[in-house]
Amino acid sequence: MRVLVVEDDPGIASGLSASLRQAGYAVDICASLNAAWLSLAVEPFDLMLLDLGLPDGEGLDLLARLRRLPPPAAGRDTLPRPDMPVLIMTARDGVNDRISGLDGGADDYIVKPFDANELLARLRAMLRRAGGRRNPVIEHGDLVIDPAAHTVLRAGAPVTLGGKEFALMLALMQARPQVLSKSRLESALYSFGEGLESNAIEVHIHHLRRKLGESVIKTVRGVGYFVPQDVATPVAKATR
């Protein structure tokens, strides 16, 4: 999952980046509305954390601009994404401020200072709603993924995944049975400037298949990867 943090305070931005990266998110920081809009126009972020008072204007103006965009045509991905989940994070704690933020298109609103674990829980809830899920865990046959605990079970046995492996599997599970291209997966897992080997996705897919079974992730040659909607019998035992 890739997060855009729009925050002009370097200390707050750095702390948020550290907490989000530790939780498995790819993170990009923008300190202005203009930089944020340019980023949204070139990368498919999964959600945005938005401060209100920024050097070049109000965060609500960026939010309004985003929400006014037309919905994408069927079968097409457009950028920026008008339906992207947005959480406002601000020191403005008045009732009217919260009402304006939520009525202005925000999916959630949190007041600074806030606890990092509460923020992460709110992000998970936003992603569940965006994906049309109610259950906090994702189940697919005998595979169970818990985004909050960062755990994976296969047939009841724990499976140890690396950070990028977990993020990749989570992205595929949340999109199933949609096919995700290699470039889309790279965008979800890696932020601007982060080192990326040309075969990184293929290597992660290989490791996931070895740990979870060959049948879990399918390849559409020349297109991308997907988790099939129908559950297949595993062909490999989960590794502890």
Task: Describe this entry's structure for a reader.
The chain has helices spanning 10-22, 33-40, 59-67, 95-103, 116-130, 163-175, 182-189, 200-212, and strands spanning 2-6, 26-30, 47-50, 53-54, 57-58, 86-90, 108-111, 138-140, 143-146, 151-154, 157-158, 218-220, 224-226. With 240 residues, the chain is an alpha/beta fold. The strands form 4 sheets. The chain has a 5-stranded parallel sheet, with helices on both faces. Strands 8-9-10-11 form a 4-stranded antiparallel sheet, covered by helices on one side. α1 (10-22) links the parallel β1 (2-6) and β2. The longest helix is centred in the middle third of the chain and has 15 residues, at 116-130. It is globular, with a radius of gyration of 18 Å. 31% of the residues are buried.
